[in-house]
Design goal:
Layout (H helix, E strand, L loop, with lengths): L1 H26 L3 H27 L7 H50 L2 H14 L4 H14 L4 H13 L3 H14 L5 H14 L6 H13 L4 H13 L3 H11 L6 H17 L4 H4 L8 E7 L11 E7 L6 E8 L5 E5 L16 E9 L9 E9 L6 E5 L5
Parallel strand pairs: 1-7
Antiparallel strand pairs: 1-4, 2-3, 2-5, 5-6
Helix pairs in contact: 1-3, 2-3, 4-5, 5-6, 6-7, 7-8, 8-9, 9-10, 10-11, 11-12
Pfam family, one: Ig_CycH
Subcellular location: Cell envelope
Main location: other
Length: about 400
């Protein structure tokens, strides 16, 4: 509706843009337009009068005929001038009417022929879905959108996710498969979600097809979280415990949610125990090498973009390079953050090898960790301590 209001306003503006100059011209015509024709008529009259005068002098026109012929010439001139002006006035009156009618007709006609009226209606239908409070109504509306615009794979992907959340895995799989086809298998998200739907629908059993989809997703996006999670599960089920550990350890620094991190650490410990390690060894020293902080924002910073990036990392007191790092965003704060050896940046560098570290939090509005807008640190944090230290990002430390 807003689109058509705006379009109507622009059409009205275009009509005024054309009509106002024409109206002004009608009221104040350029003198030259009329004078040019009048001059021509006068020149013709002069020529004819001179010819009449010569004929009178030559005796071919009598004295009695001369005034009659002269009056006739003058009358004809007046008639022609009046006719020309009347035609111009009628024409000038018709031009604004024709232009006012043609502008909206041509504009709307061309829009429906060449423009994006269908796309506008498409976007309006999607916006309506987001305002619906009834879940059944929203699903039905989303299905209608997908049926009307089958090429819209983004709405189809949203519909597939809705089916997943409702436990309708058959329709979810069909929708994800179509999205994968439409995107030519070039996007990791629908490929990995298809693998996830197949895995759940199959009673949490790994198949060759699911594993192929996992590999396909990771080839496109090596750090895709759903694909890494499934890759760890597939390796664990195949008794490739080292492969499961590699996948889940890679996933750990990408997982900010504490519950998700605890589940991953439990999976890593279980995989290590299956490899024949003792309970203490299977823990991998994670509990002994961890550093806990509570990250929050100083209220004095005011409102910051929810998408602004936050990087929390531990480093040696005498070296600037991070040992372990967790990426977050402003939307995640405040948050308890645990840094451990599963998040190390380089092989051979671990928290376990340090008794104390500095913990730094950097906030970047542009996402550039090397040039943060705000930076806060706490020094000499004991590695392995169960105590969580407060880390408040403020402008004072910037």
């Amino acid at each position: 509706m807003m689109f058509w209001i705006a379009a109507g306003a622009l059409i009205l503006l275009a009509i005024l843009f054309v009509l106002l100059p024409l109206r002004h011209y009608q009221r104040n015509p350029l003198a030259g337009d009329e004078l040019d024709q009048d001059e021509i008529n006068l020149e013709v009259l002069r020529g004819q009068l001179e010819d009449l005068e010569e004929r009178k002098n030559a005796g071919t026109v009598s004295e009695s005929e001369y005034p009659v012929l002269r009056n006739e010439l003058e009358r004809r001139l007046l008639a022609e001038v009046g006719t020309d002006r009347e035609q111009k006035e009628r024409s000038n009156r018709a031009i604004p009417v024709v232009m006012a009618a043609l502008i909206p007709v041509l504009t709307i006609g061309l829009y429906f022929q060449l423009g994006g009226s269908d796309q506008v209606r498409h976007q309006e239908e999607i916006r309506k879905i987001y305002t619906m409070s009834d879940a059944e109504q929203a699903v039905s509306a989303l299905e209608s959108v997908v049926n009307q615009w089958p090429e819209d794979y983004q709405s189809r992907y949203m519909l597939a996710g809705t089916y997943m959340s409702r436990g309708d895995y058959v329709r979810a799989i069909a929708a994800f498969e179509e999205v994968v086809r439409q995107t030519r298998g070039q996007q990791a998200e629908p490929v990995s979600r298809l693998a996830e739907a197949l895995y759940i629908a199959g009673g949490s059993k790994m198949t060759d097809r699911i594993q192929a989809l996992i590999k396909q997703a990771l080839a496109i996006e090596p750090d895709h979280t759903t694909a890494l999670s499934l890759a760890g599960i597939a390796a664990f089920e195949a008794k490739d415990y080292q492969g499961a550990i590699r996948a889940w350890e890679r996933l750990l620094p990408l997982t900010a949610d504490p519950v998700g991190r605890d589940a991953l650490m439990t999976g890593i410990r279980t995989a290590r125990m299956e490899m024949g390690m003792s309970g203490e060894a299977a823990d991998g020293g994670l509990s002994e090498s961890r550093v806990s902080v509570h990250v929050s924002l100083d209220k004095a910073l005011g409102e910051l973009p929810a998408s602004a990036r936050v990087f929390v990392y531990a480093r040696s007191a005498d070296a600037p390079m991070p040992i372990a790092i967790v990426p977050l965003s402003v939307a995640d704060l405040p948050r308890d953050v645990v840094l451990d050896d599963s998040q190390v940046m380089m092989e051979g560098t671990t928290l376990t090898s340090h008794e104390q570290v500095d913990v730094v939090a950097r906030l970047s509005l542009t996402g550039d960790v090397m040039n943060p807008d705000f930076e806060t640190r706490i020094k000499n944090v004991e590695v392995g301590s169960d105590k969580s230290r407060p880390l408040v990002i403020s402008a004072d430390d910037a």
